[in-house]
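Deliverable D2.4 — example input (structure tokens):
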């Protein structure tokens, strides 16, 4: 049912640590953080890094933070 699916999707929220995209401005520069930390394992980290390499190749420097550095 298209109406039920539309309602379900409109109420969807990101799962913390599952590809959540955070955007902010600091020191006059725009930053995008992709939080893909939920239940990370070597295969999922590799997939995230590959995904990051394809995102906006003109974005400038890209940094991956691994481990418990954000806690």
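Example output (designed residues):
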């Amino acid at each position: 049912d298209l109406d039920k699916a539309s309602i379900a999707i409109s109420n969807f929220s990101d799962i913390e640590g599952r590809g959540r995209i955070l955007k902010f401005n600091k020191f006059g520069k725009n930053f995008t953080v992709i939080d893909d930390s939920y239940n990370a394992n070597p295969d999922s980290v590799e997939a995230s890094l590959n995904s990051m390499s394809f995102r906006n190749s003109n974005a400038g420097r890209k940094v991956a933070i691994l481990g418990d550095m954000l806690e």
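Helices lie at 2-10, 42-54.
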